[in-house]
Design a protein that fits this description.
Blueprint lengths: L22 H4 L5 H27 L7 H27 L5 H20 L3 H17 L3 H10 L1
Helix pairs in contact: 2-3, 2-5, 3-4, 4-5
Length: about 150
């Protein structure tokens, strides 16, 4: 009498067999400040990228020549990509991403003061409020615990 094949040798998976826990379900839940920092950095990076490409397409080069405009486009897109990547790194728990993210947020805060000085206080608020919130939330206890525990 031939022996029966074991379930492991079967090419058809047994979805009803008991399985070990999946890695994603074992992950700790992220605290809300980490979610907020991630969303702020993601939105800032996306807004910067979209605004840069749109302004490059519709505007004529006034001060810079074509090469200068392309260099500025690449620089701004790189800045936006770095913001997004730092947001993802903080979301994943990399403690080393907090310092460069906060340096970029500090630069955004400094940039917002030029809008305040120019009389565009609404634009200045759009810059300073998320950047200040991200800087504040990066150093609250739940965020520090999250980044310390995962590094």
């Amino acid at each position: 009498m031939p022996e029966k094949d074991s379930p492991r040798d079967s090419p058809q998976p047994d979805f009803n067999a008991p399985q070990g826990p999946r890695r994603f379900t074992q992950a700790r839940s992220r605290p809300w400040p980490v979610w907020v920092i991630f969303l702020i950095l993601l939105m800032q990076g996306l807004a910067l990228g979209i605004n840069t490409v749109a302004s490059f397409v519709v505007s004529e080069s006034a001060v810079l020549d074509t090469v200068g405009m392309i260099a500025m486009l690449v620089l701004y897109l790189l800045f936006g990509a770095i913001l997004i990547l730092l947001g993802f790194r903080i979301f994943m728990g990399a403690a080393g991403a907090r310092t460069p993210a906060m340096v970029l947020q500090l630069l955004i805060v400094v940039l917002s003061f030029s809008f305040f000085a120019g009389g565009l206080w609404q634009v200045g608020l759009l810059f300073v409020v998320p950047a200040a919130l991200a800087m504040l939330l990066a150093f609250v206890q739940p965020t520090r615990d999250w980044l310390d525990a995962t590094s």
